[in-house]
Amino acid sequence: MADSYDREIVREETSSGDPVRPAPAVSATTSRRSVYREGSNNSRATQAVWWIVGFIDVLIAIRFVLKLFGANPAPFVRFMYDVTWPLVAPFHGIFNTTQEGRSILEPESLVAIAIYALIGWGLVSLIRLMTRPRSTTTVVD
To answer: What is the C-alpha separation between 97 and 86, in angstroms, rounded?
Structure first.
């Protein structure tokens, strides 16, 4: 399926002489063609950024749910904690962690999800800014 950003817009303008003055013996025709290239590589880059951010956020969300429900330290649970710890560690200590029995409410996981989503949004905005469509104008006399 073609991306809506992956297309070219071509605009052609043709003007011949000035209608107010009488036309000279040789008529001058000016043609202008503008090509606006939209999309190309920026859609792939933005898709890659959103995929990575989504993957990271899902991993952290799984960590949050496992801690919230007090999951037993099975190999999968330990693996998830080990993989996601470096992603959550920068936000550790922002809030107090509440523990009720084995259930742990870990707000730094929620903060990490929000911050990584904001970083992804910033990267996508930067990619779109750096690769925004440029117009090329050719004037033919």
So the answer is: 17
Contact yes or no for 17/28 (Cβ under 8 A): yes
- Return d(Cα 51, Cα 141) in angstroms, integer: 48
- pLDDT over 70 for what percent of the chain? 65
DSSP H or E segment with residue 34: strand 29-38
Return the bridge partners of 30, or none.
Answer: 15
Confidence of residue 21 (pLDDT cuts 50, 70, 90): low
Token pair of 8 as six digits:
């070219």
Q: Is residue 26 scored above 90 in pLDDT?
A: no
Which pTM does this prediction carry? 0.66
Q: Round to the nearest angstrom and report the end-to-end CA distance of the chain.
A: 39
Q: Looking up tokens 């200590």, which residue turns up?
A: 93
pLDDT of 40 higher than 60: no
* Dist. CA 94–CA 109, nearest whole Å: 11
